[in-house]
Amino acid sequence: MKQTVKAIIDEQGHVRLAEPVKIKGLHRALVTILDEAPVEIDEVTQLAETALAEDWLKPEEDEAWTHLQ
């Protein structure tokens, strides 16, 4: 399954993912560097997204929404 994940890259080339990624084994990845600065998200929003992502990333959630794809 292909995934797109937001990330921020600093001037030293370090990549910080904006959300958790659950994968098994090694995978290849592509990095696209955009010409725009990252939008700062407040801490409460980040915490809520992390907590909700636990449910969003469950296989049964994907199955429940397959009729819309």
Number of discrete domains: 1
From the N-terminal CA to the C-terminal CA, the straight-line distance is 14 Å
Total of helices: 2
- Secondary structure category: alpha+beta
List strands and helices in order, with pairings:
Blueprint: E1 7-9, E2 15-17, H1 43-56, H2 59-64
Antiparallel strand pairs: 1-2
Describe this structure in words.
The protein has one domain. Helix content is 29%, strand content 9%. The protein is built from two helices and two strands; from the N terminus they run E-E-H-H. A two-stranded antiparallel ribbon has the order 1-2. The protein starts with 6 loop residues before the first strand and ends in a 5-residue tail after the last helix. The mean pLDDT is 82.
What tags apply to this protein structure?
69 residues; alpha+beta; 9% strand; globular
Give a brief description.
With 69 residues, the chain is of the alpha+beta class. 29% of the residues lie in helices and 9% in strands.
